[in-house]
Amino acid sequence: MVRQNATSATPRWLNSVEMRAWRNYIIASRHLLEALDTDLVGHDLSMPDYEILAQLSDAPDRRLRMSELADIAMLSRSRLSHRMKVMEKAGWIKREACPHDKRGYFAVMTPKGWRAIVAAAPDHVESVRSRFLDHLTRADQIAIAQIFEKVGDGLRANPEE
Hints:
Largest sheet: 3 strands, antiparallel
CATH class of the domain at 42-121: Mainly Alpha
CATH architecture of the domain at 42-121: Orthogonal Bundle
Mean pLDDT: 90
Structural class: mainly alpha
Strand order of the largest sheet: 1-3-2
Strand content: 5-15%
Radius of gyration: 19 Å
Number of strands: 3
C-alpha cells in the first residue's frame, strides 16, 4: 500500500540524501540477512529457526506462549505455525497446551533444540561480528541502536501507518 501525506495529495518524494539512506539500508539489510542465513546452513538452521530458538533459550523454562513468540519473532501466527511444524519435526521444539487457556499453546524448547542453538550460537555470533559489527565503530553501533529504537517505537505507536 502506498501511503500519501495526510494533508496533501502530493507525495513527499525522497530527496537524494533520503534516497541514498533508504536504498543503502534496504540493499545492505537484505544482503546481511541472506549472508547470516547462509552462515547457518552448516547447522541445518534458517535465520527464522535460529531466532525462534534464541527467543526460547532466553525465556523462563525455555517456553513462551505461541502468541508472544509470534510477536517477538515478528511472524504472523500462520507463518509461526508453519515454522513450528518444521521445528517440531526436527525435534527442536514441542507444543504444549496452556492449562489456563484451552485455545492457547506454549512453544517449548527441547533438549535437542538447546543443543542446536548452543552449537550454532558461536558461529552465528562470529558471523554477526564479521559481517556487521566489525564494519562499525562503537559510535556507529550506538547511533544505529538509537536510530532503530526510534523507528521501532514509531512503528509500534502507529502500526497501521
